[in-house]
Amino acid sequence: MAYKYVRIAGNRRQTGLALGKLARPLMATYLNQSRTWDALRPWRGHAFLDELAQQAQAALPAIWEELEGLAEGLHMPIEDVLLWNCRGDLLHSTTDGCTSVALKSADGTRWIAHNEDGDPYLHGRCHLVDVALEDAPGYLSFYYPGSLPGHTFGANRAGLVQTINNLRIRQRHPGVPRMLMARAVLDCATLDEAVAKLRDLPHSGGFHHTLGAAGDPRLLSAEVAPGEVSIQDIGTRYGHANHMVHADMGGVAQIVTDSSRARQNRIEGIVDGWSAGSGRDDLIAALHDTTGELPILRTAADDPDDENTLATAVFEIGESEVTLRVYDRKPKADIVLDVMSDTE
């Protein structure tokens, strides 16, 4: 199995501390083999990183407490943990990939599914964390060692679902680091609250958010970049890889890798063939598709973006329930969770 399931509870600092302790045995080895960490180290002590810290503390003080707890649990300086969690704001390209799909079935069920693509070293070394907070709904999220949860796939006890795709933005801009922003979205109780947070706070980096919520008929596609936010209501079916495709984001400079272009073209072709009767099996088949030299399911040792699929998530969203199924490169789920009732 590509991850371990862990429950955590407490206040902000306590949950961050627990997340840090969870990752501590692996963190040094993980960073030592990471080319991303090599590229980040010259940014230590840079004034721009200090600016990102100030923006994060001012806009998201509760999330900053989690980051401080994370650093304490990792036995790492807060400056280095912040640096790691700002990798997508500082570097134009990182080993965080992903493909997301969304579907509205004829019976009203909404579906959001996602391939979490990342550093191949992490396959089998990540966690699915179930975090209960004292002052927020609490959430389930895939957890990369040393990274605040939320920038992968997750859902909270209020029924809000979020999946994240990396965008490779060519500009740097002072603002709230994108991974802290994604974590903050999981504290929102409604889609409208999540959209307001994405629109109102200043952004440093760029992400694509696929959003849905129990009891809300909408599915949303949000492309977020410094100074620009585009929110689109998804019709009946949708696919998104790792570059911006919204027409009103055409002026934002970005890097489009061969893999992202190939996956975007392929996923659009697949979802165009879906019908009102499509459902979970169609989403899994799409995300496990191996067609072409640069397929949606990524397992190649020589992947050009240095990424492999670490897990596949399928969220089934109803009127008062959200079910999460997680898969490890095979059609049978490893785990099934009822997100809103806190039962496995």
Note down, in words, how this protein is organized.
The protein has 344 residues and is of the alpha+beta class. It has a single domain, classed as Penicillin V Acylase, Chain A (4-Layer Sandwich), CATH 3.60.60. Helices cover 31% and strands 27% of the residues. It has helices at residues 12-32, 35-40, 47-59, 61-74, 78-85, 87-90, 178-185, 191-200, 258-272, 280-287, and strands spanning 3-10, 99-104, 110-118, 126-133, 139-143, 153-156, 160-166, 207-213, 216-225, 228-233, 237-240, 308-317, 322-327, 335-338. The chain has an 8-stranded mixed beta sheet, covered by helices on one side. The protein has a 6-stranded antiparallel beta sheet with strand order 11-2-3-12-13-14. Strand 6 (153-156) and strand 7 form a beta hairpin. The longest helix is centred in the N-terminal third of the chain and has 21 residues, at 12-32. It comes from Achromobacter pestifer. InterPro entries: C45_proenzyme-like (IPR047794), Peptidase_C45 (IPR047801), Peptidase_C45_hydrolase (IPR005079). This is Peptidase C45.
CATH topology: Penicillin V Acylase, Chain A
Instruction: For the largest sheet, list the strands in their spatial order.
Output: 1-4-5-6-7-8-9-10
Distance between the termini: 17 Å
Number of strands: 14
Helix content: 25-40%
What's the overall geometry?
globular
Taken in chain order, the helices and strands follow as EHHHHHHEEEEEEHHEEEEHHEEE
| Number of helices, where a helix is a run of at least 4 consecutive DSSP H or I residues | 10
Organism: Achromobacter pestifer
Domain Peptidase C45 hydrolase: 107-328
Protein name: Peptidase C45
Pfam family, one: AAT
